[in-house]
Amino acid sequence: MEVAESEQGSLVVVDTRRQSSWDHGHIPGAVHIPTAQIPALAADLIPAATKVVVYSWGPGCNGSTFAALAFAELGYSVKEMIGGIEYWIRNGLPLETASGVSSQKPDPLVTAHA
């Protein structure tokens, strides 16, 4: 929930999934940098002193671990968003697509919110 409750501008959220996954839906305001492209694109898209939070699909995907390592190797302060976009959605938080931003009802089995 740190990402959802963070002050705007205090960190940059990076979606590390492939293009088709990004197109399917992502966290509003996130930056899209697939893991393999982080070394080439990070410095052009994210200022060096920025706090970065990376995410991938969910708990069964280790893509954000590799992405966090790539950012750390470039000198960024980086964290992984545990649960990824799967738990973001399951908690009823907003999702952005080409159609706009929408939210679903929280899943009562996983949500941290009532």
3D structure, described in words:
- With 114 residues, the chain is of the alpha/beta class.
- It has one domain (15-100): Rhodanese-like domain (Oxidized Rhodanese, domain 1, 3-Layer(aba) Sandwich).
- Helices cover 28% and strands 18% of the residues.
- The chain has four helices and six strands, in the order βαβαβαβαββ.
- The protein has helices spanning 19-24, 38-45, 63-73, 84-90, and strands at residues 12-15, 31-32, 51-55, 77-80, 95-97, 100-102.
- The strands form two sheets. Strands 2-1-3-4 form a four-stranded parallel sheet, with helices on one face. The protein has a two-stranded antiparallel ribbon with strand order 5-6.
- β1, α1 (19-24) and β2 (31-32) form a beta-alpha-beta unit.
- The two termini are 13 Å apart.
- The model has no long low-confidence stretch (mean pLDDT 92).
- It comes from Paenarthrobacter aromaticivorans.
- Residues 7-97 form the Rhodanese domain.
- Pfam families: Rhodanese (PF00581).
What topology does this entry show?
Layout: E1 12-15, H1 19-24, E2 31-32, H2 38-45, E3 51-55, H3 63-73, E4 77-80, H4 84-90, E5 95-97, E6 100-102
Parallel strand pairs: 1-2, 1-3, 3-4
Antiparallel strand pairs: 5-6
Protein name: Sulfurtransferase
Organism: Paenarthrobacter aromaticivorans
Domain Rhodanese: 7-97
